[in-house]
């Protein structure tokens, strides 16, 4: 097989491929074996028509498309490997020649991974701030713990307030017609959480247990369901119950309930250490991010739109997975927030481009510094994963290999080593006073 690559502009080029005639013949055989099973010819059992009779009746050309479908993906993959290019999207294929007894010629216009020209990547300056935990931060963390361990107490007589949880039935309609997803019974809604359409929760505030009300709202113009976007809706709401958070007292008993300590003083001391450790980890991550950002800014790179689109889709999928782990999904989120999927993708686009740029630059630094990943480092990572998931190393390796993630593991280790090298060679400078506060 012959394969050549010619760059047209920037990251776009054409792959020209010529596949040997014997492989064309083999693909035609495979196509015949597939098609003949569906063919009925008088005098022959279904699927038993001899090849010469099939070709005489239907023509050899009737096998061409199936043969191309069999041969093209394999030939394209081999051509990509042979020319050492890295496509980042699906190719635009043009068939130049395909016939029995001839070679198979095709062109594939494809966008490839861009070239990266590194700028200065050693000695970049990174602002750092003094790390400490203030009394105010400690108090805020204690309040968060109080909120987390608060008891929901049924409110019998008071009106609903922001922060209360209302147990409601609702039945929504537009122009008197119910719509999908607009009805629920005994739904727990935290007022002030902005979970529902703008204006809905505000109209529930002030109601009492047993009250009913018609809540009138307008769906946002960019609502994910075009049938509802911009339309006025009426929700018949009935309040079954109101619950209010009652915070526990900050005392020794609270410390015993939420920690291993007997006194509040001991717990606060330990909590301050935890907060300090957390801030140190956050500072480490922030420094790593700042170094990578600086190095990426110094590099010259033309990022293909296809790579950004692909990363946006990855981010949307990850976001959906996080939502599902919280008992929601992407469709529900879009409905509650009044956004379309396109809106969400547009919001993610800038971060997606930054991720792509940073990863490409880190890959180039790794090449420039000859950073390699040893088998021992891979085994150590596998052991860490095995410990975390309480599985054997062999099981973890098998899972990663079966779902195609093993190569990603090696890339992840390489990226971490590259970032560590950049941080080690960076220069710390004192952050401005405003940034340090």
Automatic annotation (TrEMBL):
InterPro entries associated with the record: PPIase_dom_sf, PPIase_FKBP_dom, Trig_fac, Trigger_fac_C, Trigger_fac_C_sf, Trigger_fac_ribosome-bd_bac, Trigger_fac_ribosome-bd_sf, Trigger_fact/SurA_dom_sf
GO BP term (any one) = 'de novo' cotranslational protein folding
Quickly give the catalysed reaction: [protein]-peptidylproline (omega=180) = [protein]-peptidylproline (omega=0)
Q: Which UniProt keywords apply?
A: Cell cycle, Cell division, Chaperone, Cytoplasm, Isomerase, Rotamase
Quote the EC number. Answer: 5.2.1.8
Per UniProt, the enzyme's principal EC class comes to: isomerase
Q: Which Gene3D superfamilies match?
A: 3.10.50.40, Trigger factor ribosome-binding domain, Trigger factor, C-terminal domain
Pfam families, A to Z = FKBP_C, Trigger_C, Trigger_N
Subcellular compartments: Cytoplasm
| Primary location recorded for the protein, binned into one broad class | cytoplasm
Among the GO molecular function terms of this UniProt record, one is:
ribosome binding
- One GO cellular component term, please give it: cytoplasm
Q: Tell me, what does this protein do in biology?
A: Involved in protein export. Acts as a chaperone by maintaining the newly synthesized protein in an open conformation. Functions as a peptidyl-prolyl cis-trans isomerase.
Q: Please provide the record's free-text comment about the domains of this protein.
A: Consists of 3 domains; the N-terminus binds the ribosome, the middle domain has PPIase activity, while the C-terminus has intrinsic chaperone activity on its own.
By sequence similarity, the record places it as follows: Belongs to the FKBP-type PPIase family. Tig subfamily.
- Please report the name of this protein according to its UniProt entry: Trigger factor
Record organism: Paenibacillus polymyxa
């Amino acid at each position: 097989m012959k394969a050549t690559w010619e760059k047209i502009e920037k990251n776009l080029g054409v792959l020209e491929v010529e596949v040997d005639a014997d492989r064309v013949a083999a693909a035609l055989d495979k196509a015949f074996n597939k098609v003949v099973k569906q063919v009925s010819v008088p005098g022959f059992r279904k699927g038993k028509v001899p090849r010469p009779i099939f070709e005489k009746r239907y023509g050899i050309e009737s096998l061409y498309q199936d043969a191309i479908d069999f041969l093209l993906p394999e030939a394209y993959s081999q051509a990509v490997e042979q020319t050492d290019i890295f496509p980042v999207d699906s190719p635009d294929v043009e068939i130049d020649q395909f016939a029995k007894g001839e070679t198979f010629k095709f062109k594939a216009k494809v966008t490839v991974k861009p070239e990266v020209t590194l700028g200065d990547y050693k000695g970049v300056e990174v602002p750092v701030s003094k790390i400490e935990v203030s009394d105010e931060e400690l108090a805020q963390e204690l309040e968060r713990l109080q909120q987390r361990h608060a008891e929901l107490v049924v409110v019998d007589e008071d009106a609903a307030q922001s922060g209360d949880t209302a147990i409601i039935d609702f039945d929504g309609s537009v122009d008197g017609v119910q719509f999908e997803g607009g009805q629920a019974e005994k739904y727990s809604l935290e007022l002030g959480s902005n979970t529902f359409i703008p204006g809905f929760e505000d109209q529930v505030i002030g109601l009492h247990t047993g009250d009913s009300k018609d809540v009138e709202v307008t769906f946002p113009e960019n609502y994910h369901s075009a049938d509802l976007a911009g339309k006025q809706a009426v929700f018949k709401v009935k309040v079954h119950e109101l619950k209010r958070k009652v915070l526990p007292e900050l005392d020794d008993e609270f410390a015993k309930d939420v920690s291993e300590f007997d006194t509040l003083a001991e717990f606060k001391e330990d909590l301050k250490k935890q907060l300090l450790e957390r801030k140190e980890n956050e500072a480490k991550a922030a420094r790593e991010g700042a170094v990578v950002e600086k190095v990426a800014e110094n590099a010259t790179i033309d990022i293909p739109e296809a790579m950004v689109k692909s990363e946006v889709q990855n981010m949307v999928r990850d976001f959906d997975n996080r939502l599902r782990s919280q008992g929601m999904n992407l469709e529900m989120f879009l409905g509650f927030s009044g956004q379309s999927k396109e809106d969400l993708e547009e919001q993610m686009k800038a971060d997606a481009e930054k991720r792509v740029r940073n990863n490409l630059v880190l890959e180039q630094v790794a090449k420039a510094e000859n950073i390699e990943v040893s088998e021992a480092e891979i085994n150590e990572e596998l052991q860490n994963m095995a410990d975390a998931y309480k599985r054997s190393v062999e099981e973890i390796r098998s899972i990663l290999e079966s779902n195609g993630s093993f190569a990603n593991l090696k890339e992840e280790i390489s990226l971490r080593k590259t970032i560590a090298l950049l941080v080690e060679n960076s220069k710390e400078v004192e952050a401005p006073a405003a940034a340090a506060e």
